[in-house]
Task: structure prediction
Amino acid sequence: MDPVGQKHQIILEHEQKFADRLALQVLDRPKLNVWMILIPIIFVHYFYRMQRFNSGRIAFAENFMIIRKRALDEALDAVQNEKSAKVDRSAWLLKLPEALHGPNLKMLELLVSHYTDLMRSEGESIEALIRSAYQTRIQYLLFVNELNQAEKVLNSALKPYLATSLERVDDIISAMETASEKLRRNHAETVFP
Result:
């Protein structure tokens, strides 16, 4: 695999791990207690709830990754073809309500720029790529804060569309934002000790 392809894979794996960790923090995992072991029918119900949790976790991570995979592919194309990263707005926005166009494009452009910078930097791990691209913890945290803000704006625009199909949408979005900020800050501390 070529070096750019390897960096693409490193970034993709990092983002997928982040999505999985975020899902585990946002979704309520069923708890096992002693009664479940003593009463088999309750134990069966626990396994059913655990299976639903795992399905939900996988679906959450897949949906979280949609925009990231799109941005990563755009960045890969830009780096491989030695051109500036441009987001194909028309194809991307076709399926979305108009109220989401601005926030979604902002998020996509921010991620494309970030991934392009990472793929053009040197390193064989996500931490090395980030250190190479951002140089200092402050520079990286500035990006992290910008990403957190872009996510909040996008989530705010999404709420009216999710409220009709999802219970506790405000709680879920708040938990997502809090957990993602914490995960990113913790990661920044490991990248720049």
The radius of gyration is 19 Å. The chain has eight helices and no strands. The longest helix spans residues 40-80.
